[in-house]
Amino acid sequence: MFEKKMVNGVEVITLSNAYGTAEVATLGAHVLSWTPVKEKPVLWMSKKSYFEPGKPIRGGIPVCWPWFGGAKKPSHGFFRIETWNFGGVYELAGGATMLILTLDKAELADFPFHAQMSVTMGKSLEVALTFENKGDQPVEVSGALHTYFAASDITNVRISGLDGSSFEDRRVSATQVTGHVQDGEIAVDAEVDRLYPCTTADVVYSDLGTGRSILVEKLGSYSTVVWNPWIEKAKAMPDYGDEEFHQMICIEAANAGEDTRIAYPGITHTLAQKITVL
After folding, report:
1. Mean local confidence (pLDDT), 265-273
2. Which of 34, 50, 109, 132 has the most CB atoms at less than 10 Å from its CB?
C-alpha cells in the first residue's frame, strides 16, 4: 500500500508492506527513509536539511545527474532539485512494492532526455535510475546514487570489499590525488572523500556499535564513492549539523571520474543500487 502527503510543499509517498516502510519525495525522486521490519532506520537524514521545493535534501538517497560534483551549478546536477512525476505504485510477486517516478524536462539540459526512477522495497531496497538521450547527438554525463547510511558513530564504521582497489583522494587538503591503494577495511577517523574507479565490487558496511551489517550491491557502475565530511566541512554546510558527521557514512554507486558515460541517442543506461540488511 502507499500514502501521499505534503510536507512543507514537498510531496512525500510512503510505501508499506510486510517487509517494512519507505518514504520517497517526488522532489528529486529522493528516498528519504527505509526501515525494514524489526530494524532501525537504514538511511540517515540531517535534522538541518532543507525541505522545500527547489533545494536539495540532505540525507537519504539524493540522485546526482547529469553531472557529479560541484564544478557546475547546481552542484551535483538538477535531478535532485526538480519535482518528478508520479508514475504509479505496483505490487510485485513475493510481496515487494515498486514506485515509479519520471522526469522529462528538455529545457533543463542541453539535450532532450527521459528519466525514470524506480524504488522497490522488498527484503532489500532497490533503487534504479534509468535515463535516455532523446536527442540526436551523443552527450557526456556523470552521476551517482549518493546514499547516506545511518551509523551509531562514525568511529564504529567498517567497510569491506574494496581491499586492493585503487582510489582517488578528493579532499581539498589532499597532497596526492591518485596512486593510493586500499589496504584492508575502510575505517574513518578524519575527512574521507574517495573515488574508487574501475570497480564493480559489492561492499559490506558493518557498524560495530549496533552489530549490524549491510550488503551494498550495484549495477551499471564502475566507480564507488565513500564520503564523510568530518569536522570542518560539516561546520561549513548550512544544511548539515556541526556534529552530524558522527551519525553517517556515504557509500555511493557512481558514474564518475573515469566512469563518466557517453549517452548515445536512443540508448538507455541504468545506474542501480541494492541494499540488504544481513
Report:
1. 96
2. 34
